[in-house]
């Protein structure tokens, strides 16, 4: 099976959030599936596909389980992305509905790195801009043209390749033009039209709305006539994409169940419900090589399960770095994330005064909408000894917080999967989370399940509930001793790796998508 990913982000070439980490790790991990040395267990697991509601589908026979190396990842070349000197650069003529001649020349910049092939679409008018998706005035009005061009360029490059593609794995709305175009612009090109599409939704909150006017950048008038009903005001890329894909998934079983309801579906719930067993959830893995306290170079001391001496040193170093008293044992709560209402920094701000009264210290790190942390910043200005708000993208500090904090907070209102809670547990830092989406799938409440618990879970995204969970966490931390060490140890013992499950689930899904495409 030849698998090609199209995405707007892939770490380290483009990242604003978890999407970038996931596409990078997934592309590397699936390429190892089905290889001759794969274990019998991997092969068995890869034959089972888990849909929502526990529906299990057998992956089809007659479709190879072997994912060819290298997997391709198409992505835009945004401003400032540097490439290896020996990267191959090829001009590519791409249909462009806005160009007077109907075509635009872009550059395809290709190189192998990190276990897969990166194929950057380089076209400065589209991608050499301040932001990936928009500037201070909001989303770019021509995103339909920009991401349409990304997808068309990817399909044109695939037409020129010497091997046909079996699976197009499309991530989020920015990649959905590829399946629309497969159906309306490339129907006569078996190379493209025979490819199966797996669509992965990383966050239902971003759906890619294009007005009629904006659609002109995505498709020609003839193509638009096929894509949009006559009276419609425009088109939602995510919605169209998931209706045309062979298989659709989101990034945890918990979130998959939630988005089938109006409360979380953001209007997409009926569309997903119609897919039946062609929609499911696959929990993201974590790259356990990239995230490992035993080898993490950003830490002043490394540590691992069974010997947490280094973690104590990381704690002292973090507190010193933040200007807190490193000798104070009282709990330090860490929180990292995009500054977006989804993440619940406002809930933390409202709980903060009570938490400070009870002796906690707080460190928050994030970038995005500064308004989200204005209250927290005001509290930090009054209590610099106890609250630090760092508004920048700082990979090193993020790692030092995962390692040096005593507790990790994730009060997200909704969370498709979430990565911070997995990293925190792996770094020996019990997590306090809202029981939603991927958080509910990954953290077990220790008061409810004393022998299995890895953190503290609360039921509603409300200040009082968050505060109550923090109080329980702080009292466990204060009691310390063996019970605390066992809580940390259970979190550190979990194998979140892609190889432990998710990579095989994707490989099985690819096989199933291929066979569904053949049936259509
Ligand atoms: C989005 C979601 C997050 C998920 C990530 C990767 O950023 O908000 O929950 O972990 O995508 O799938």
Describe what you observe in this structure.
This protein has 22 helices and 21 strands. By secondary structure, the chain is of the alpha/beta class. It has 2 domains: 3-285 and 499-519, 3-Layer(aba) Sandwich (Rossmann fold), CATH 3.40.50; 309-495, 3-Layer(aba) Sandwich (Rossmann fold), CATH 3.40.50.2000. The model is unreliable at 38-57 (pLDDT under 50). Alpha-D-glucopyranose (GLC) is lined by residues 17-19, 22, 202-203, 251, 284, 415-419, 438.
Report the bound ligands by name, code or SMILES. alpha-D-glucopyranose
Radius of gyration: 23 Å
Q: What topology, given as strand order, has the largest sheet?
A: 5-6-7-4-1-10-11-14-15
Name the CATH superfamily classification of the largest domain: Glycogen Phosphorylase B
Q: Structural class, judged by helices and strands?
A: alpha/beta
Amino-to-carboxy terminus distance? 18 Å
What is the CATH topology of the largest domain? Answer: Rossmann fold
Number of domains: 2
């Amino acid at each position: 099976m030849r698998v090609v990913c199209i995405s707007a982000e892939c770490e380290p070439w483009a990242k604003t959030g978890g999407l970038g980490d996931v596409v990078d790790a997934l592309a590397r991990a699936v390429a190892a599936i089905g290889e001759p040395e794969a274990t019998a267990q991997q092969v068995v697991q890869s034959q089972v596909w888990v849909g929502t509601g526990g529906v299990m589908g057998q992956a089809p026979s007659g479709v190879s389980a072997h994912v060819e190396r290298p997997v391709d990842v198409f992505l835009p070349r945004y401003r400032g992305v540097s490439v290896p000197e020996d990267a191959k650069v090829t001009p590519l003529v791409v249909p462009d509905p806005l160009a007077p001649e109907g075509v635009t020349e872009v550059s395809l910049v290709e190189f192998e790195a990190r276990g897969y092939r990166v194929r950057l679409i380089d076209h400065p008018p589209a991608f050499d801009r301040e932001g990936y998706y928009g500037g201070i005035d909001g989303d770019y009005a021509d995103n339909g043209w920009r991401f349409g061009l990304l997808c068309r360029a990817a399909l044109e490059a695939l037409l020129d390749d010497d091997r046909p593609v079996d699976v197009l794995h499309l991530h989020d709305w920015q990649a959905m033009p590829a399946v629309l175009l497969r159906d309306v612009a490339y129907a006569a090109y078996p190379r493209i039209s025979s490819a199966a599409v797996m669509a992965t939704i990383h966050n239902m909150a971003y759906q890619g709305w294009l007005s009629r006017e904006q659609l002109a950048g995505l498709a020609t008038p003839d193509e638009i006539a096929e894509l949009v009903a006559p009276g419609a005001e425009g088109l939602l890329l995510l919605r169209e994409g998931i209706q045309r894909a062979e298989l659709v998934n989101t990034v945890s079983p918990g979130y998959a169940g939630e988005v089938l309801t109006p409360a979380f579906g953001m209007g997409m719930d009926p569309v997903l419900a119609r897919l039946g067993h062609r929609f499911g959830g696959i929990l993201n893995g974590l790259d356990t090589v990239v995230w490992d306290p035993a080898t993490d170079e950003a830490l002043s001391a490394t540590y691992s399960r069974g010997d947490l001496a280094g973690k104590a040193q990381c704690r002292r170093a973090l507190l010193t770095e933040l200007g807190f008293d490193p000798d104070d044992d009282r709990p330090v709560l860490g929180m990292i994330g995009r500054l977006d209402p989804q993440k619940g920094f406002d809930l933390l701000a409202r709980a903060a005064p009570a938490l400070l009264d009870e002796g906690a210290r707080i460190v928050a790190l994030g970038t995005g909408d500064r308004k989200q942390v204005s209250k927290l910043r005001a509290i930090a200005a009054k209590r610099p000894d106890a609250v630090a708000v760092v508004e920048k993208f700082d990979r090193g500090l993020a790692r030092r917080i995962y390692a040096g904090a005593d507790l990790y907070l994730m009060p997200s209102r909704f969370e498709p999967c979430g990565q911070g809670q997995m990293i925190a547990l792996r770094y020996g830092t019990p997590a306090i989370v809202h029981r939603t989406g991927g958080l509910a799938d990954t953290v077990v409440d220790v008061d409810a399940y004393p022998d299995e618990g890895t953190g503290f879970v609360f039921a509603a995204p409300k200040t009082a509930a968050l505060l109550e969970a923090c109080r329980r966490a702080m009292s466990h931390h204060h009691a310390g001793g063996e019970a605390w060490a066992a809580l940390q140890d259970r979190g550190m013992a979990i194998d979140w790796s892609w190889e432990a499950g998710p990579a095989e689930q994707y490989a099985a899904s690819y096989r199933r998508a291929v066979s569904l495409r053949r049936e259509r």
